[in-house]
Design a protein that fits this description.
CATH topology of the largest domain: DNA polymerase, domain 1
Protein name: ComEA protein
Number of strands: 5
Strand content: 5-15%
InterPro entries: Competence_ComEA_HhH, Endo/Exo/Phosphatase_dom_1, Hlx-hairpin-Hlx_DNA-bd_motif, RuvA_2-like
Shape: elongated
Distance between the termini: 80 Å
Strand order of the largest sheet: 2-1-3
EC number: 5.99.1.2
CATH superfamily of the largest domain: AF1531-like domain
GO molecular function: DNA binding; isomerase activity
Number of helices: 6
Number of domains: 2
Pfam family, one: HHH_3
CATH architecture of the largest domain: Orthogonal Bundle
Radius of gyration: 28 Å
Length: 147
């Protein structure tokens, strides 16, 4: 009698999927690409993109955008782009500013003069108030400057 009860218990145990939960959980292999650098990562079923980035040593704040990915599949490649290092309009020197293509010594000095007169820049668009910087130049340099 005990043997029959044990058999029914095991059949129910297997049919309900409990055995499957005891199996070894296979890791998924993915690749994370940041700019031109590749990181091959083993991912657990409950990993998040933030956990993965931390594991490979990438600071989330250094990325332009982080995708909202909830699940991963074998061989998946996730392409990410890092933020460009920007030159601060409020703290940089004239020499720093001349590193930006399109900003020479005169425009750099004009930027510093504007910063002194107005105490600080509130937005990158304020560069339009500086002689020699128009919408086209601003459009070309706006990704390289910050407040």
């Amino acid at each position: 009698m005990k043997l029959i009860v044990l058999c029914f218990f095991l059949v129910g145990f297997v049919s309900l999927g409990f055995i499957g939960r005891l199996e070894y959980k296979k890791k998924t292999e993915i690749t994370v690409e940041v700019d031109s650098k590749s990181y091959h990562v083993s991912v657990e079923h409950d990993d998040t993109i933030q956990k993965i980035l931390t594991r490979v040593g990438i600071q989330v704040s250094s990325l332009k955008e982080i995708p909202d990915i909830n699940s991963f599949y074998e061989g998946q490649v996730i392409h990410l782009e890092s933020r460009k290092q920007c030159i601060s309009l409020n703290t940089s020197s004239a020499q720093d500013l001349t590193q930006i293509k399109g900003i020479g010594p005169r425009k750099a000095d004009a930027i510093l003069k504007y910063r002194i007169e107005h105490e600080k820049f509130i937005s990158v668009e304020e560069l339009l108030n500086i002689k020699g910087i128009g919408p086209k130049l601003l459009d070309r340099i706006k990704d390289f400057v910050c407040i």
